[in-house]
Amino acid sequence: MTGPENPQSEHPHPENPPGDPAARVRVSLAERSYDILIGNGLRHRFAIEVAAILTRPRAIVVTDENVAAHYLAPLEAGLAVAGVSVDSIVLPPGEETKSFGHLERLADRCLSLGLERRDTLIALGGGVIGDLTGFAAAVLLRGVDHIQLPTTLLAQVDSSVGGKTAIDMPGGKNLVGAFHQPKLVLIDPETLDTLDRRQRLAGYAETVKYGLIRDRAFFEWLEANGAGVVDGAPGGGARVRAIETACAAKSAIVARDERETGERALLNLGHTFAHALETATGYSDRLLHGEAVAIGMCMAFDISAAMGWTSGQDAARVRAHLEAVGLPTAPAAIGPPGLTPDAMIGLMRADKKVADGRIVFVMVRGIGDAFVTAGIEADVLNSYLSVVLD
Ligand code: NAD
Ligand code: GLY
Fold first, then answer.
1. Ligand 2 site, residue 264, Cβ cutoff 6 A
2. 164 lines ligand 2 (CB under 6 A)
3. Which 3 state secondary structure label does DSSP give 36?
4. Nearest CA residue ID for atom 2, ligand 2
5. What does the alpha-carbon distance between residue 306 and residue 379 come to, in Å, rounded to a whole number?
6. How far is the C-alpha of 300 from the C-alpha of 315, rounded, in Å?
């Protein structure tokens, strides 16, 4: 594997870069359609692919300190060689950066750099940078273009695709945001080699999600190949295949339901529970988003089993796989969240899917068969929460 230990020394001339994409997934949204390119080594082509679609050769790269240390200099150099005038803004890492304060500072910085309407913001990083930069692009000058260069597994399988952009509020995750599709998504799975294992696992939870909502065969493939996706396998093919499968699944759903009036809500399997747990733990390192999703997906399977919608075996099989790779599967795994069932239900009422005051959940009839319902019986929910939050 050509790991990016010293990416600055391996910056190639952009006229002859290695790393042709192994896969191309189209997100079909009429005039807002775009490509997702996936390939090991694709980072060597980031600049040339970006330069090819800019409206004018001017871009601002937004990234965080951790990602900048590995990938910013080669990207800046490549863009400069490709004739793009580029500035970079480096933000602190972590979920706290997805805030109004950082949005304001980022907007201010872009404007002071002379941002014009035909310029492009480039998000280089994980879901935090992607969501914040996408939202800034949605609102700056009433909308400028943006490109996603995701560098975490979570961002490569989920957040960089589909145009959901947002910041967190003290009362809940992602409560201020906009739908704003990127112009291009470029994914180099080799960038995961510099990401720590806990973060790769968090992204793996969102990968498993696609198997659980619509694709039992993909879940079964992950049961056999999950370790290769999380830790990297010789040749890197497992990661490319998992990311391509996830991006294809998400693209198809987004193409049918861009604004989440129906089917797209399935992508929130486990998220109603996850967002409540994240809010309760203060969006901190105590619980990463993907870890919360792993716990939330198990809660969805447990409650579906308690409602008689799925078998206890499927719930146990999902939990066994997530635990086998090393993900948490119950609130107790992160220590007592300090939540009563009533407090948890109160937090879940802040969810964007709440309709007519009723909490809407994604539940399952089995692995690969998710559905949306507001019909969880209150006593089933209360007694389940009182056990798992004890
Ligand atoms: P993140 O962006 O915080 O990145 C995790 C950590 O890894 C950070 O410290 C970052 O600096 C570091 N990092 C990133 N890439 C690296 C690399 N290649 N090498 C070394 N370090 C690297 O977290 P995340 O898990 O990518 O994203 C989580 C966010 O995504 C949450 O806010 C969540 O709400 C959001 N999200 C959005 C969507 C969507 O559709 N927009 C979907 C899922 C999740
Ligand atoms: N991650 C959920 C969605 O994009 O809809």
1. yes
2. yes
3. strand
4. 267
5. 11
6. 9
